[in-house]
C-alpha cells in the first residue's frame, strides 16, 4: 500500500476530492438501487453495489494509469482518436435504436465483456484535447477564419452532427465547452460569433427539417421541444413527472434530510441512481449534504484552474481547462435540472451517478489533469536530449 501511495503523483487535493466523491457515491447509489432491484428481473440491491464498485475500481485504475503518461503525448493521441470516435459514432447511429419512434442510438455493446458504452461521452473528451492541441499550435500565429475551418471546425461540426439526432443535450454541452475553450485560447471573438451563428442556423435547419419531414430520419426533436415547453409552462403535465418527483424529494429532505437509505421518492423517480441522483441525495442528506457536494465540485474547479495556471506550456494550460471544466459544468447542469433551473437533459452527476461510461471518461479526464499537474524535473533536460518516439509522433501531428 505504501508503494502505491508513493507512486501517486500530481495534485493531491484533486486525488482527495475524487476519492471523497467516489466513496460517498456508494451511499445514494446503493439506496436508489433498491427500486432498480425491485423492478428488475432476478437481481438484488447488492448486485448494483458490486457493479458500481467495479465501475469505480476501473475508473480509478484509469486515473492512475493515465496520470503516469506525460501530457505532451495526448497532443498526438488526439489526432489518432478523432477517426476512432467518428467510426464509433457512425456505428452507434447505424444501430437505429428507437424509443417511441425517436432516435435513441447512444450506446454500443462491447463484445465479450458485455459492457455498454456511450461513444458521445468519449467523443467530447477527445474533441476537447483536439481543440486544445490546435489552439496551442497556432498560439503565436495570426489566425484567420478560412485557415481554421478545415483543421478545427470541420471535425467539431462533424462530431456534433453525429451526436445531435440522438442526444441534443450532450451536443449542446460539447459545443458550449468548445466555444469556451477557443475563447480562452485566444481565438478571435469575431470569428467565434460567426461560428455560434452558424451553429444556431444548422440547429434551426435540422429542427425545421425534422418537423417538416418526420419520416426522413428518426430523431428526438419532439422530445426536446416538449421538454422545453414543459419547462416554460407552469401547468403540470405527464411530461413533468420526473422533475415533479425530484422537487418533492428535495422539499422532503429539508435542511438535514431523512437519513441514509430513507428516501421515499427513489421508489417513484425514474433514473434515481443516475440522472436524478442529486434529488435523492438532498432527500436523504438534506440541504447540508447537497451544499457539501456542491462545495466539492467548486473546490475541484478551483484546483483545475490552479493546475492550468501553474502549467509551463500553452498546451498544458488549455488541455487542463478543456478536459477539467466540463466535469464541473456537467455537475452544475445536473444539479440545475434537479431543482428545475434547466429543462431535463439526461446528464449524469460526475463520479456520483451510476453508469460505466460517465465514470470512466470522467476518470480519464481527471487522469489527464493530474498528468499536467505532475512535476517532472527531468522534462526540461529531456528537451535537449534524444526524444521518445511517441513525442516525435506527437509533435509531428
Describe the structure.
The protein has 397 residues and is an all-alpha fold. It has one domain. It is built from 15 helices and four strands. The chain has a two-stranded antiparallel ribbon with strand order 1-2. Strands 3-4 form a two-stranded antiparallel ribbon. Helix 2 (12-39) runs antiparallel to helix 11, helix 4 (73-94) packs across helix 15 and helix 11 runs parallel beside helix 13. It starts with a helix and ends with a helix.
The radius of gyration over CA amounts to: 22 Å
- Share in helix: 55-70%
Q: Give the helices and strands as they follow along the chain.
A: HHHHEEEEHHHHHHHHHHH
Percent range for β-strand residues: under 5%
Number of helices: 15
Distance between the termini: 39 Å
Short description:
The chain is mainly α. The chain is built from 15 helices and four strands. 68% of the residues lie in helices and 2% in strands.
Please describe the topology of this protein:
Blueprint: H1 2-7, H2 12-39, H3 45-66, H4 73-94, E1 98-99, E2 102-103, E3 108-109, E4 116-117, H5 119-137, H6 145-163, H7 168-184, H8 189-212, H9 221-232, H10 241-253, H11 277-310, H12 314-338, H13 356-373, H14 379-382, H15 389-396
Antiparallel strand pairs: 1-2, 3-4
Helix pairs in contact: 2-3, 2-11, 3-13, 4-5, 4-6, 4-15, 5-6, 5-7, 5-12, 5-13, 6-7, 7-12, 10-11, 11-12, 11-13, 12-13
Amino acid at each position: 500500500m505504501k508503494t502505491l501511495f508513493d507512486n501517486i503523483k500530481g495534485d493531491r487535493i484533486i486525488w482527495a476530492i475524487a476519492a471523497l466523491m467516489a466513496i460517498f457515491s456508494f451511499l445514494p447509489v446503493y439506496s436508489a438501487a433498491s427500486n432498480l432491484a425491485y423492478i428488475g428481473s432476478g437481481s438484488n440491491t447488492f448486485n448494483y453495489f458490486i457493479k458500481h464498485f467495479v465501475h469505480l475500481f476501473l475508473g480509478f485504475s484509469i486515473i492512475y494509469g493515465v496520470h503516469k503518461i506525460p501530457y505532451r503525448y495526448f497532443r498526438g493521441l488526439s489526432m489518432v482518436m478523432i477517426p476512432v470516435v467518428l467510426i464509433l459514432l457512425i456505428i452507434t447511429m447505424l444501430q437505429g435504436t428507437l424509443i417511441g419512434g425517436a432516435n435513441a442510438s447512444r450506446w454500443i455493446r462491447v463484445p465479450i465483456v458485455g459492457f455498454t458504452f456511450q461513444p458521445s461521452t468519449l467523443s467530447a473528451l477527445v474533441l476537447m484535447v483536439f481543440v486544445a492541441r490546435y489552439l496551442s499550435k497556432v498560439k503565436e500565429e495570426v489566425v484567420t477564419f478560412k485557415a481554421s475551418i478545415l483543421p478545427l471546425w470541420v471535425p467539431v461540426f462533424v462530431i456534433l452532427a453525429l451526436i445531435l439526432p440522438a442526444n441534443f443535450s450532450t451536443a449542446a454541452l460539447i459545443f458550449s465547452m468548445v466555444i469556451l475553450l477557443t475563447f480562452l485560447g485566444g481565438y478571435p471573438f469575431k470569428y467565434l460569433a460567426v461560428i455560434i451563428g452558424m451553429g444556431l442556423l444548422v440547429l434551426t435547419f435540422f429542427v425545421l427539417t425534422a418537423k417538416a419531414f418526420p419520416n426522413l430520419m428518426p430523431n428526438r426533436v419532439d422530445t426536446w421541444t416538449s421538454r422545453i415547453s414543459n419547462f416554460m409552462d407552469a401547468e403540470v403535465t405527464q411530461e413533468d413527472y420526473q422533475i415533479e418527483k425530484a422537487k418533492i424529494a428535495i422539499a422532503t429532505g429539508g435542511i438535514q434530510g431523512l437519513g441514509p437509505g430513507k428516501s421515499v421518492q427513489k421508489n417513484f423517480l425514474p433514473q434515481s441512481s443516475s440522472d436524478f441522483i442529486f434529488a435523492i441525495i438532498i432527500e436523504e442528506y438534506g440541504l447540508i449534504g447537497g451544499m457539501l457536494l456542491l462545495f466539492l465540485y467548486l473546490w475541484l474547479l478551483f484546483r483545475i484552474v490552479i493546475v492550468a495556471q501553474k502549467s509551463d506550456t500553452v498546451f498544458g494550460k488549455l488541455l487542463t481547462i478543456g478536459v477539467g471544466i466540463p466535469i464541473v459544468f456537467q455537475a452544475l447542469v445536473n444539479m440545475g435540472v434537479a431543482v428545475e433551473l434547466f429543462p431535463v437533459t439526461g446528464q449524469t452527476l460526475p463520479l456520483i451517478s451510476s453508469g460505466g461510461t460517465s465514470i470512466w471518461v470522467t476518470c480519464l479526464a481527471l487522469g489527464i489533469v493530474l498528468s499536467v499537474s505532475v512535476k517532472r524535473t527531468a522534462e526540461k533536460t529531456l528537451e535537449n536530449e534524444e526524444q521518445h518516439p511517441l513525442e516525435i509522433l506527437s509533435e509531428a501531428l
